[in-house]
Amino acid sequence: MKNRNIFFKSTLILILGGIITKILGFIIRIIYTRIVGEEVIGLYSLVMPTYSLLITIATLALPTSISKLVAENKHNNLKIVSTGTILIMTINFFVVLFMLFSARFIANTLLHEPRCYLLIIAMSFTFPIVSISSIIKGYYYGKQNMVPNVISNIFEQLIRGILIFIFVPSIIKKSEILAAASLFLFSFIEEVVSIFINLLFLPKHIKVNKSSFKPDRYTLKNILDISIPTVSSRIIGNIGYFFEPIIIQNILFMTGFSNNYIISEYGAYNAYTITILTVPSFFITAISSSLIPEVSKYYLQHNYYLIKKRLKEAIKFAFLIGIPYSILLIFFGKYILNVLYQTKMGLNYILILAPIFPLFYIENILMSFMQGVNKAKITMRITILGVIVKNVVLIISGLLHTGMYSLVISEIVNILVVVSLNIYYTNQFFKKL
Fold first, then answer.
1. Cβ neighbours, 10 Å, residue 101
2. What is the pLDDT of residue 415?
């Protein structure tokens, strides 16, 4: 009963915090979108796949590794965090260096949009601070203490909203590119605040000295054993996401669509369609974040009954949220778009994707379960196949002159393939017990 209470308490805290964070994020996004307009949103959307790929490399899935190791109590927690920090800062040094030398090539050659150069430079300087913040959050997830992360996330959104409200209206008058780049600067400030808040919640008995910052080989090995398969899976997924705007830009341009149409529609797809479809994601993230340390703990104890029970509870909860929300979007998507963004752009994409998105909501839960039972290599193989299938479908449907609907079609196929394989391997895991 005590373990059950810890799991549900952790999940509930994350959900309540997620609701507040999501509401604040929505308000901020609406304000920002109305201030800067669709052109800036389109440019920002073009560079986000690059950001997602590189931040995945920069963080090396260490939050998941640290969460799992802390939950299992295999090591000294301070040694886990310090070893992870040294590793992640070393990686960040090379990632930032790479970005500084390749930014112009990515903007000019891959994205065919020279204006993205400044945005790529700006984003690269956020990687180290975001990485450190993620390590601290991973520690709290492992301890199943969700309060510090919830409070820091709320403050992040508040800081972002204040900065956007004060500075963006004057920045946009000077330059659209600076208005888009400012979001990355704001992210840097937010993460500094987040780190400071999280540090306030650290146990008082922790003593830090010179030996604390010496990397431990055994701890490093255990961190990498978990993070390499996990990050490989995420990198592969983000490589697919990275190539998404590149494929869209080239295929649609080749089939007769203008560059303005591509930027406008792709911006609408990401800023409006995907944003609204993924509103329940903070519920799913809360469940997944609580599930990893919970499953890891029971897997170490060989308590497969509770592992199965927690997984079923998580999936049921995801469907209870996802299915009603999808029905809501099908019938009232038009009004939601109009109220939030004063636009109808992206509505057709929402109506097509909404029926399939309840499956998308359980994808992250199934992958978190796999990571908790040391099956991250399986998720990596599933992700590889999903990325290949999605990009192949994207290219073929794009060549058939389906316009931005090629992206919608490829998204549906990807969800069906990835979720089906995750369900299959989950069933295989329990059959072998």
1. 8
2. 93
Where the chain has pLDDT below 50, the residues are 1
In one-letter notation, the amino acid at residue 114 is P
Q: How many domains does the chain have?
A: 1
User: What distance in Å separates the CA atoms of residue 7 and residue 282, rounded to the nearest whole number?
Assistant: 16
Q: What is the pLDDT of residues 171-196, one digit of tens each?
A: 888 888 888 888 888 888 988 988 99
Q: How many CA atoms lie within 13 A of 147 on its CB side?
A: 7
pLDDT of 327 reads: 94
How far, in Å, CA of 229 to CA of 246, rounded?
26
Angle at 183 between CA 251 and CA 152, to 5 degrees: 120
Place of tokens 């989950």: 426
Q: What is the pLDDT of residue 337?
A: 86
- How far is residue 291's CA from residue 317's CA, in Å, rounded to a whole number? 12
Average pLDDT, the chain: 83
Q: Residues 41, 271: contact at Cβ < 8 Å?
A: yes
Look at residue 125 and give its three-state secondary structure: coil
Q: CB–CB of 268/340 below 8 Å? A: no
Q: What is the DSSP letter of 216?
A: P
Domain that holds residue 276: 2-431
Q: Which residues contact 194 (CB under 8 A, 6 or more apart)?
A: 133, 152, 153, 155, 156
Q: Give the closest residue to 364 by CA, choosing from 283, 420, 422, 288.
A: 288
In this predicted structure, what is the pLDDT of residue 212? 59
| Euclidean distance between CA atoms 124 and 303, whole angstroms | 43
Amino acid identity at 353: L
Q: What pLDDT, on a 0 to 100 scale, did the predictor assign at position 183?
A: 84
